[in-house]
Write a structure and sequence with these properties.
Distance between the termini: 37 Å
Strand order of the largest sheet: 2-1-5-4-3
Low-confidence stretches: 1-5, 7-14, 87-100
Largest sheet: 5 strands, antiparallel
Number of strands: 17
Strand content: 15-25%
Structural class: alpha+beta
Helix content: 55-70%
CATH class of the largest domain: Mainly Alpha
CATH architecture of the largest domain: Orthogonal Bundle
Shape: flat
Number of domains: 5
CATH topology of the largest domain: Arp2/3 complex 21 kDa subunit ARPC3
């Protein structure tokens, strides 16, 4: 099973080599963060924000991949950058004696926490790896990036307004630049890291090398080089020609032409190259903004950069999804034993794959008619008719011979292909090699022929023993009539043609009533769909089959054994079925199960069934992302009743307690007797903790009411402990222990009360 990078980091603490690699990655990340920040600071507007903030992309991926450990690493990177920024013009002592530490705290830590507030809950909820070939994942990525950017921009700019570094008028100008700059940084860098870097982290941390270095590294490098050259040429053409013509005022509009080479890269090379092209294009735009001093049009360029990132992400994801489908089809075709073929309108092969195509050495461009073997082929006329009428064909057995191969019989299936105008453009289909099957059938026919000849030779002698067979038949009829099991004979259409005496007793039908009925007419309506499903699957099997179901009229359970009758000369057909009454055995099994899983006195689930139910409840809660609760109940004063009124009165009291507890829960909940005067309740689908507390309070009030016994009324109370999932525990054993200890806390606090587990 593949682990997440976060799990790998946790496990890496056990290995010194993995720990060193992790620390090396942390060091590289800190260096990259500083480089990204200082590169973004070159385009600062107002000396505060950058329209292209690459550290946002690093921060987004770091928190998303490494979780809380990534938060610590990101805080270190931000604080280090802040210290370098403030300490470069003045000494370190002066920095910390001034108000600059507060700038470090609010100016650098607050945006990081804003990102963490969005990404850490998402990471906990998002169990699958990011897959930009899925539109839902792409949409979630964009929404998350926008939310994180917006929250960070609001936190950062409000901090500046609060510290009087900005006025409200300046705030309205700085806020969109900050927001869009972070958003562009995420769109530009985060997909590249998630697609190309994050998958290799686990492999590197565990084995010390990136998988791309061993798996098609040369091919990936060649594609990346071509992508880089295409991007550079596009930037030179889009910006070089207008610059030479002094059309500098139209650069933002001209920059939209970069979408064309980006689309070409995505369509030809897929998602990996698309995200690289996005980074290179946006980097080139930023460089050209600085080079041509186009900062006054930064907002227009930001919109262009967002458009480039969105087109690259969505188009690359769509191409990746298409490529996955194509790869899956090619893999299926490569390993298939059948022949997958396609012809043009003239009947020439233009596609042939599968092992049968390789064995037959089929060549593209040859006519399918040239492959046909000479001689009589019974299905050839049907094939010609289907082709002439441009209709599909199925299960046509045709003999053909490939280059240097022996003749093969194939079962041919095909569908016509039509273009946009409705004209026939070819056929596509499959061919299954049935040569071995035909040889087996021919051999079987030969054996059958010899057998029939021998049977014919012995026909005369069999006639002489016909009278003996008649006697044996009469004996068989007597045996069937006296057999302690039901015997049912069905014809080839699955209709009853014989039912013995015991079969009539089981089914509740006379032999006349049973005539012509199918096996489903004898089945109870609740079991009909199940029997029909199994019957359709196994009815043609030559082996003995078994099926257990209830009978319709008698409502008895029976086990049905049947075997298919067949003979080449059609003298014997149909099915023989033997019905055995299994009602007593099933009732005994149900009684044993009830005794094993229920309390004999109260008929409530016992401790064994409680363990099963709580496991099912927690599994249900995990699937539905809902809550659950366990209530542990111990009766106060029960021993006094038992001692004063007798054990019989105590048993009646326990039965009444069970009824009162059951009346306070839902059908989906469970009340179990754990032993003595202890009970437990399992509650599922808890929307809020107050639901469990309310039910416990109602149960406490119900127990406080008098109990009517033969010896007089009795008064008891209860102490109830409540434990909640997942707030208090996430396993069945731990949750039960928490509820039990909460109950003891209620007893120690004076009894007749409800205590919720507080962790003590």
């Amino acid at each position: 099973m593949n682990n997440t990078p976060d799990q790998v980091v946790t496990a890496s603490l056990l290995s010194s080599g993995q720990r060193r690699r992790f620390l090396l990655l942390c060091g590289i990340y800190l260096v990259l963060w500083q480089v990204a920040w200082f590169s973004a600071s070159l385009l600062d507007r107002f000396g505060i924000v950058s329209p292209w903030y690459l550290p946002a992309g690093l921060r987004f991926c770091c928190l998303l991949v490494f979780g809380w450990r990534g938060l610590l690493l990101e805080l270190t990177a931000d604080l280090l950058c802040g210290l370098l920024q403030f300490s470069m013009p003045i000494d370190l002592a002066t920095t910390f004696l001034s108000d600059q530490p507060y700038w470090l705290l609010y100016g650098w830590v607050a945006p990081v926490l804003a990102y963490a507030a969005v990404l850490l809950p998402l990471r906990r909820w998002m169990r699958d790896a990011w897959d930009f070939s899925r539109p839902a994942h792409s949409a979630l990525f964009l929404a998350t990036a926008l939310a994180a950017s917006t929250l960070a921009a609001l936190v950062g700019t409000f901090r500046m307004v609060y510290t009087d570094f900005l006025t409200l008028a300046q705030w309205s100008t700085i806020l969109p630049v900050w927001l869009i700059g972070d958003f562009i940084g995420i769109l530009t860098l985060a997909p590249l890291l998630l697609v190309r870097v994050a998958p290799g982290l686990q492999h590197y941390l565990q084995q010390g090398r990136w998988p791309s270095l061993q798996q098609s590294g040369a091919a990936n490098g060649s594609v990346d080089l071509r992508t880089t050259l295409i991007v550079l040429m596009a930037l030179l053409l889009v910006f070089g020609i207008p610059w030479s013509l002094e059309l500098t005022t139209h650069f933002p509009l001209i920059a939209l032409l970069l979408l064309l080479p980006l689309a070409w890269v995505a369509l030809n090379y897929g998602l990996r190259s698309a995200v690289l092209a996005v980074l290179l294009l946006d980097s080139g735009l930023v460089l050209l903004i600085a080079l041509f001093d186009q900062s006054d049009q930064a907002l227009h360029y930001q919109l262009v950069m967002i458009a480039i990132a969105l087109v690259g992400l969505w188009l690359g994801g769509a191409v990746e999804a298409r490529n996955r489908i194509l790869r899956r089809y090619r893999d299926f075709a490569r390993v298939s034993n059948d022949l997958l073929w396609e012809t043009d309108a003239e009947g020439r092969l233009r596609e042939a794959s599968g092992r049968l195509a390789n064995r037959s050495a089929l060549s593209l461009g040859q006519s399918w008619r040239s492959l046909l073997c000479q001689g009589s082929q019974p299905h050839l006329a049907a094939l010609e008719k289907a082709l002439c009428e441009q209709q599909p064909f199925h299960h046509l057995e045709i003999a053909f011979q490939g280059a240097g191969d022996r003749a093969r019989w194939v079962q041919l299936n095909g569908l016509p292909l039509r273009d946009e105008s409705g004209e026939l453009s070819g056929y596509r289909g499959t061919a299954v090699d049935v040569s071995r099957s035909r040889r087996a059938k021919a051999l079987l026919r030969s054996y059958n022929k010899d057998l029939f000849e021998k049977v014919e030779e012995r026909t005369q002698s069999l006639k002489q023993t016909n009278s003996e067979l008649e006697i044996k038949e009469r004996r068989l009829q007597v045996l069937l009539a006296a057999a302690p099991v039901g015997v049912l004979e069905l014809d080839d259409a699955d209709c009853c043609r014989y039912l013995n005496v015991n079969g009539c007793a089981l089914t509740g039908c006379t032999p006349e009533q049973a005539q012509g009925r199918t096996i489903l007419d004898f089945v109870h309506p609740d079991d009909r769909s199940y029997v029909e499903f199994v019957w359709e699957i196994k009815r043609q099997s030559p082996d003995v089959q078994l099926l257990e179901f209830r009978l319709k009229r008698s409502n008895l359970w029976c086990a049905a054994y049947w075997i298919k009758l067949s003979h080449p000369d059609q003298t014997m057909d149909g099915t023989i079925m033997v019905l055995t009454n299994t009602t007593a055995r099933r009732q005994q099994d149900e009684r044993l199960w009830t005794l094993a899983h229920h309390d004999a006195l109260t008929e409530l689930p016992n401790r064994n069934l409680f363990r099963e139910r709580i496991g099912q409840a927690l599994a249900h809660a995990r699937r539905r992302a809902s809550g659950a609760a366990v209530l542990w109940i111990d009766l106060d004063g029960f021993k006094a009743v038992n001692d004063s009124l007798g054990h019989a009165a105590g048993d009646v009291l326990l039965q009444q307690v069970a009824q009162r507890l059951k009346s306070r829960i839902r059908e989906s909940d469970t009340v179990a007797r754990m032993g003595g005067d202890e009970f437990a309740v399992i509650m599922t689908d808890i929307a809020e903790p107050g639901m469990a507390l309310q039910v416990a309070t109602e149960m406490l009030a119900s127990l406080a009411e008098p109990f009517a016994l033969a010896q007089g009324s009795a008064h008891i109370t209860g102490s109830i402990g409540v434990a909640l999932y997942p707030q208090h525990a996430d396993t069945a054993e731990a949750l039960t222990q928490c509820a039990d200890m909460a109950m003891y806390s209620a007893k120690n606090s004076g009894k007749n009360q409800v205590q919720v587990w507080n962790g003590e």
